[in-house]
Specification:
The protein is built from one helix and 32 strands. The strands form eight sheets. Strands 1, 2, 30, 31 and 32 form a five-stranded antiparallel sheet that branches. A hairpin with a 2-residue loop joins strand 9 and strand 10.
């Protein structure tokens, strides 16, 4: 074999190795830039099963509720179990393996553990909202003759545990502490064209508040208890109180509009706000703000679309706006971007962070998040 032929073979081998290395480097660079992709062929759940509907995620199960009951599906959209309960206007919420189901047209509710009844609740007036904690204690917001609202707590056997009448305020959100010893209630009052949020803090053994906070000109949207901390979200900002109602910290939106929020995980608090430039002028799109447990801004990520809903679990944040969807780490790194088949009104991540479900009109769709670009 001549030296020239031998040299040519060595050159070809070197070029081939170099090409493989180049491809690998390109793949690595792309995967580092956006290491996941969102499938464009979701598992779709037929609309005839979800008319007059609500939905929640329990671990890695989708709980889809309509006027005839609940059907549970896995992350692939496959049926798992069902529970029959007739409602006119269904409402569902979860905490751990506990599921609270209510009919907001009347005073009936049931607490489930999977598809087994834990206990049943019957109020004399319509239920507007219900919450449940990991121990099975539930809190019901309803109306009652002579009062604007009433908040009733039931223990894990379904026994009446606490009841408080709000007087002149409409209760919009309430929560029970993890140890079942404290609770907080956020109500709204309107007088002379002025609105204010009033937050009352309680020990469960006394209906007299141990503390109160008043936020003039603000409307409360959500109240959450984490340990001994109480978080209250309004249209103007987020407030952090201790169990006695002392303000510990806050994060104010300062002129920005709240587009969406995810406040169900104290280790991954996030909001979507309108974008502004350095001078405070409004820009198109949204900004995802990741917050610490003490409401310190950790990360800020700009999105080109206006967000309408979001969810956060573990270290991931999912944001959508009509047909746009973006998955981020709470560190601010964008993991994936995609387009939904239909406009989404609600969106939730599965616990494993590898799938999510959207409610698109009357259609529920389960999308997978796959490694690679």
């Amino acid at each position: 074999m001549s030296k020239k032929i031998k040299w040519n073979k060595q050159l070809i081998s070197a070029i081939a190795v170099g090409a493989v290395i180049a491809v690998l480097l390109i793949w690595w660079a792309l995967s580092m830039w956006m290491p996941y992709h969102i499938t464009d062929t979701p598992a779709e759940i037929p609309s005839d099963t979800i008319s007059e509907h609500d939905f929640e995620i329990s671990g890695n199960s989708l709980l889809l509720m309509n006027t005839m009951g609940i059907r549970a599906y896995d992350k692939n959209g496959e049926y798992i179990w069902d529970y029959a309960v007739k409602t006119a206007n269904p409402f569902i919420t979860v905490s751990g393996n506990k599921i609270a189901v209510a009919d907001t047209e009347n005073g009936q509710a049931v607490i489930l553990k999977k598809n087994k009844v834990y206990y049943e609740i019957e109020e004399s007036m319509p239920i507007s909202s219900i919450t449940v904690n990991n121990d099975g204690y539930s809190g019901v917001i309803s109306s009652e003759h002579g009062y604007r609202s009433v908040f009733t707590v039931y223990d894990d056997f379904g026994n009446l545990y606490f009841k408080w009448h709000s007087g002149q305020n409409y209760i919009v959100s309430a929560d029970i502490s993890d140890n079942n010893k404290n609770m907080a209630v956020a109500g709204i009052s309107t007088t002379d064209n002025n609105v204010q949020t009033v937050i009352n803090f309680f020990n469960m053994n006394n209906t007299t508040p141990i503390g109160q906070a008043v936020l003039d000109g603000e409307v409360a949207y959500k109240l959450n208890y984490f340990g001994a901390k109480v978080y209250v979200l309004t249209d103007k900002g987020i407030y952090l109180y201790n169990k006695k109602g002392k303000l510990k910290d806050s994060y104010m939106f300062t002129g920005r509009t709240l587009h969406a929020f995810a406040l169900d995980d104290k280790d991954n608090l996030a909001v979507c706000l309108s974008r502004t430039d350095e001078a405070g002028s409004m820009l198109s799109g949204s900004q995802v703000i990741s917050l610490s447990e003490n409401l310190k801004e950790k990360e800020r990520v700009s999105l080109e679309f206006e967000a309408s809903c979001m969810d956060a679990k573990n270290d991931r944040i999912l944001v959508s706006g009509l047909r746009n969807v973006t998955l981020l780490k709470k560190s601010g790194r964008i993991l994936a971007e995609g387009t939904l088949k239909n406009d989404a009104s609600r969106i939730k991540l599965f616990e494993n962070g590898k799938s999510f479900v959207t409610l698109e009109g009357s259609l529920a769709s389960v999308y997978s998040i796959k490694a690679g670009f």
